[in-house]
Amino acid sequence: MSSHPTSFGVSLPAWVDDEVRSAGTVLPEVEERMRLAHRLAARNHREGCGGPFAAVVADADTGRIHAAGVNLVLASGLSAMHAEVVALSVAQARLGSWDLSSVGTVELVVNWRPCVMCYGAVMWSGVQLLTIAGEGDEVERLTGFDEGPMRDDWQDQFARRGITVRTDILREQALAVFADYGSRDDVTVYNARRGAGSAA
Amino acid sequence: MSSHPTSFGVSLPAWVDDEVRSAGTVLPEVEERMRLAHRLAARNHREGCGGPFAAVVADADTGRIHAAGVNLVLASGLSAMHAEVVALSVAQARLGSWDLSSVGTVELVVNWRPCVMCYGAVMWSGVQLLTIAGEGDEVERLTGFDEGPMRDDWQDQFARRGITVRTDILREQALAVFADYGSRDDVTVYNARRGAGSAA
């Protein structure tokens, strides 16, 4: 194994920081933060980095942007590099802690309900507020991605761990991004779906 | 944001490769592969890298070890760096694909049932066989870690996506590692548990 890499890493594309800077690094209104997520998601798949998903980590009180992330599965070659994992990891690297609650009340803004992996990633991150554009199977129908099996009580399970969910922020704009992605005939939907009774 | 890091990365501690090399890079018997996972998990918390968890990625047909990973939450400062995410990411970096099914039938060996985040990480990785030492709340009782809310039909949901689960491989040895961890009075249990009705 000595000749093999014993590490992995992920770099945000430069255009992500460009988008954050042009949006402004303090975005007091939740709609501004969600608009940034939509813009990043819409650009991400056109840049070829991964699926149409983006996440923004912000100070929940001031709207200061700690970090942004996009889905980098294709760019990184790593299946775990969904937007939420990327954004939370960059924020934790910047802030110097695996527990974002140590720097204040931190919000994660995502352009749809997280998949089952990212649901857990949010749970362990120290985030205390999750803001999403919406939830529902529209994302799977429009994009072809499998979001995985979520529990019906997923919001209650968050609440028991001190995490509040806020939904339906610029929902229609999220669907427009997914529809744009779904209209392409040249994309890679990278989730595994090999089972005979493949997921809905 | 220009002065802030726009990347993150994780390196395996050198002792992980040492352990793999001394175990042997081809381990045809499942018990050998699980024994390696237990050895890595037992050493990991003593080394101060993170919790007592380890994962091994192997060729399911030959037992050739593609990669090993340990929980690196404390070492990396990143809450998503559970053993499964680390092992799968190192394997994907080595093998050059976000889809491990592209290189054959790949097994992930873990020293207990994955948490909800890692459940999703396995689902999206291209792994087709998950081998675990066991499942049940012993891990939470002995170590204090929260594993998150899993669905009762988690195995069926894997099966629908072409992933087979094999359990109860060297189960008692897993519990011994967790009990050893739990006996320490100097450890950091890093999962968030801030809710009033904190999780079991």
| CATH topology group of chain A | Cytidine Deaminase, domain 2
- This entry's quaternary arrangement is homodimer
Helicity range of chain A: 25-40%
Along the chain, the helix and strand elements of chain A come as EHHEEHHEHEHHEH
Q: Mind summarizing the main beta sheet of chain A?
A: 5 strands, mixed
> Superfamily at the CATH H level of chain A?
Cytidine Deaminase, domain 2
Q: Mean pLDDT of chain A, nearest integer?
A: 93
Strand content of chain A: 5-15%
The CA-CA distance between the termini of chain A, in Å, is 39 Å
Let me know the number of strands of chain A. 6
Mind telling me the C-alpha Rg of chain A? 16 Å
Structural class of chain A: alpha/beta
**Count of domain modules of chain A:** 1
Query: Architecture of chain A, CATH level 2?
Result: 3-Layer(aba) Sandwich
How is the secondary structure organized here?
2 copies of one chain form a homodimer.
Chain A: E1 7-11, H1 14-23, H2 30-47, E2 54-59, E3 65-70, H3 73-76, H4 83-95, E4 106-110, H5 116-123, E5 129-132, H6 138-143, H7 154-159, E6 164-166, H8 171-182
Parallel strand pairs in A: 4-5, 5-6
Antiparallel strand pairs in A: 2-3, 2-4
Helix pairs in contact in A: 1-2, 2-8
Which key features would you list for this structure?
homodimer; 200 residues; alpha/beta; Cytidine Deaminase, domain 2; 6 strands; globular; disordered C terminus
Question: Explain this structure to me?
Answer:
The structure is a homodimer of 200-residue chains. By secondary structure, chain A is an alpha/beta fold. Chain A has a single domain (14-181), classed as Cytidine Deaminase, domain 2. Helices cover 38% and strands 14% of the residues of chain A. The first copy, chain A, has helices spanning 14-23, 30-47, 73-76, 83-95, 116-123, 138-143, 154-159, 171-182, and strands at residues 7-11, 54-59, 65-70, 106-110, 129-132, 164-166. The first copy, chain A, has a five-stranded mixed sheet with strand order 3-2-4-5-6, with helices on both faces. In chain A, β2 (54-59) and β3 (65-70) form a beta hairpin. Mean pLDDT of chain A is 93; it is low at 194-200. Chains A and B meet through β1, α1, α3, α4 and α5 of A and β1, α1, α3, α4 and α5 of B. β1 (7-11) of chain A pairs antiparallel with β1 of chain B.
